[in-house]
Design goal:
Blueprint (H helix, E strand, L loop, with lengths): L7 H15 L9 E6 L1 H4 L10 E4 L11 E5 L12 H4 E7 L4 E7 L10 H14 L5 E5 L2 H9 L4 H11 L1 H6 L5 E3 L7 H11 L4 E4 L3 E6 L2 H21 L10 H11 L10
Parallel strand pairs: 7-8
Antiparallel strand pairs: 1-3, 1-6, 2-5, 3-4, 4-5, 6-9, 8-9
Helix pairs in contact: 4-8, 5-9, 6-9
Amino acid sequence: MKDILTMPVMVELIRTITNMYDHGWDERNGGNVSVMLDEAVLKEYLDTDRVLRTIPTGFAAPALNGKYFLVTGTGKYFKNVQYAPENNLGIVRLIQDGTVAELLWGYSDGGKFTSEFPAHMMSHVARLQVDPENRVIMHCHPANLLAMTYVHDLDEVAFTRTLWQMCTECIVVFPDGVNVLPWMLCGTNEIGEATAEKMKTARLVVWAQHGIYGAGKDLDETFGLIETAEKGAEIYMKIAHLPLVNTITDDEMHQLEAHFGVKARPGYLA
């Protein structure tokens, strides 16, 4: 059996989480990440017949029954993951239609998965229906996107168009746009259900006055989605109080569509 800490997705997750913390996206224990694992690969590193304990999930997700996930722990500081991964991360398998998680590795101090676990799993279900390659859900608190929700209209078309206009790369990286939820109580099934519904039409979902959810095929793609949206929000926050003299026009964004082979979300451009 290979060392679980050398499993490529484990190495990449630890590196990504450290990078997220260094970016200032995950203060204290803010933020969480979950990755759906390939069972065949996992079995090279872990005895999946050895269950450490079971944890009720508090929701049902029949579509994820038998699926394996690498997930950050509740109350865990991202800055500590690189030093004590077995304490701050866990690998679980969902059983009984997703109502129970079998802990196979991690949470060595007796902890469990993030309080946003329902929102993550519901978002996994939603994204897998759109794109079976989407295996990562990432939640964090980028300062500029968070600030933008205080001063910008939360209408999804308006919010998306502003971000697209801030950076040439934005429409190329997230042509499906950004969906937005008004403030809701976090850590509940209700916000999980609302986020999952938004995930059906976009890989980025902003939680107003809180943070953002991103989905992608791997950690790099998901990190890059959030990173690009945050750059757009940073530029907006620097210029929002100034007279706008220039912008990226709809015609120019259509040129970007044609050149990069992407298609903007219908109805978002003139």
